[in-house]
Amino acid sequence: MLKIKNLSYLVNSGDDDKDILRNINLDFLKGKIYVITGPNGSGKSTLVKLIMGILSPTEGKIVFNDKDITNLKINERAGLGIAYAFQQPVTFKGLKVKELLNIASNKENDFNTLCDYLSKVGLCAKDYINRSLDDKLSGGELKRIELAMVLARNAEVNIFDEPEAGIDLWSFENLTKIFKELKSTTIIVSHQTKILEIADSVILLKNGRVEKIGKYSEIKPYIHSDTCGKLRGENG
Ligand SMILES: Nc1ncnc2c1ncn2[C@@H]1O[C@H](COP(=O)(O)OP(=O)(O)OP(=O)(O)O)[C@@H](O)[C@H]1O
Ligand SMILES: [Mg+2]
Q: 235 in ligand 1 pocket by Cβ < 6 Å?
């Protein structure tokens, strides 16, 4: 459904090229949950930015539903059904919450539907539906509204980079419940055990390469081993 073939991302850092990602091959299946994990700097955010088209690969291909999307722009990929939730939520000044959700789902929703999206992310609809998206909303509220927008958008592929950031006061249980309920192919960058546990497949990146793929129980020993080695490796 979504395939990554021999994907590499090199940057020119002074004298020589630095591989941020090297020769990544992945096959994401419809409706499954994938969690990308690995040490800081292993290339997780770079990988999801390449999938969304925020960055362009130096080598390799990205194929979505048999179409080569490697050279498509972010909005073209979004139009095909790939959605990306930003690590820092975006504010759309002047819009109300209900307008944002209607735009995301591309239709006028009735009160009950909007209420359903908001209650799933732990917000009481009557308090938020007519709120303006402005700096009076807290970071956590904005993050939840962004998640409600993801639900309303109903994309075929949903990508999240560290979605737990900024929602400390809200239990992970709710977040993991949302991921499990999404019908999409879901790709989540995370370090959190509770999120790793719900993955159909965990992809462990180390030094820009795929080290292991499997259920969390199989990958766990590799995630927690050799922390000093990883740091030494990254520092050359
Ligand atoms: N344009 C660039 N030039 C040089 N180095 C870069 C560039 N972009 C990314 N990097 C480096 O590539 C590595 C991977 O970055 P990336 O943001 O993908 O890591 P990450 O796995 O998401 O880490 P974290 O867990 O800290 O979010 C880092 O060492 C980063 O400093
Ligand atoms: Mg990152």
A: no
